[in-house]
Specification:
three-stranded parallel sheet, about 35% helix, alpha/beta, 5 strands, 7 helices, D-Maltodextrin-Binding Protein, domain 2
Length: about 190
C-alpha cells in the first residue's frame, strides 16, 4: 500500500515498525519488522523520483539549515541560485529541495553559482555533482575545491528526455537531432 501511495503522489506515509509485532502495545498486526521497513524504504527511494517526489531523510537537519531568520544578505528572503533556466531540471531540483522557504533564481553558469554564494549575494547554491548516465560533473568538483563552501544536503532527481517530431515521422527516418548537449549525452 505504501508503494502504491507514493506512486499515486502521496506526500507522506505513516508506517508502524516493531521488532516484535506480536508483543507491540499497539498496532502490532499492521507493523513491519525492521528489515521489511528497510526494504520498503529502498523501494520507495526508487519509486518517488518517478512521480516528482523525494524521500527526504535529512528533513530535520535541512529545516534548521534553511530556516534561520537572517539571510546572509541584508533584508529580504533567503535565496538559492542554480545554473540554467527557470523550469529546467536544476530549477526543479532547487524547488524540490527548498520548497517555498527560499527564493530561487537562475544564474548563467556553475561558476556563477559558487561566486554568488561566496560573495554573499545568495545563501545557497544548487549544482549537480553526479549523473547516473554520464557520470561526475567534474567542473563542479573543481569548483568545490576552489571555493570555500560546504555541501548541506542532496536531492536525487529523475531526469527524463523525450525526442519530439512530426507525428508521421518514423524513428528510422530521423537524420538530425537538435538538442542541448547534455540531453544527447544522456
Amino acid at each position: 500500500m505504501a508503494r502504491a501511495a507514493i506512486a499515486a503522489g502521496a506526500d507522506g506515509l505513516i508506517i508502524e515498525v516493531h521488532h516484535d509485532p506480536d508483543h507491540a502495545l499497539s498496532d502490532g498486526p499492521q507493523a513491519l519488522y525492521p528489515d521489511q521497513f528497510e526494504q520498503l524504504m529502498r523501494d520507495l527511494y526508487v519509486i518517488a523520483p518517478v512521480v516528482g517526489k523525494q524521500l527526504d531523510f535529512a528533513y530535520l537537519e535541512k529545516a534548521t539549515t534553511i530556516r534561520p531568520s537572517a539571510s546572509v544578505r541584508e533584508g529580504g528572503p533567503r535565496r538559492a541560485v542554480f545554473a540554467g533556466e527557470m523550469r529546467a531540471f536544476a530549477h526543479k531540483a532547487a524547488s524540490q529541495f527548498f520548497g517555498a522557504e527560499v527564493r530561487i533564481d537562475p544564474v548563467l553558469s556553475f561558476r556563477a553559482v559558487f561566486q554568488e554564494v561566496k560573495d554573499g549575494r545568495s545563501d545557497f547554491g544548487v549544482v549537480p555533482l553526479e549523473n547516473s548516465l554520464t557520470g561526475s560533473i567534474h567542473d563542479n568538483y573543481d569548483l568545490l575545491l576552489e571555493y570555500d563552501v560546504r555541501i548541506i544536503g542532496e536531492i536525487t532527481l529523475r531526469i527524463v528526455h523525450a525526442l519530439i517530431g512530426q507525428p508521421e515521422t518514423k524513428l528510422e527516418d530521423v537524420r538530425r537531432v537538435i538538442s542541448h548537449p547534455q540531453a544527447l549525452e544522456q
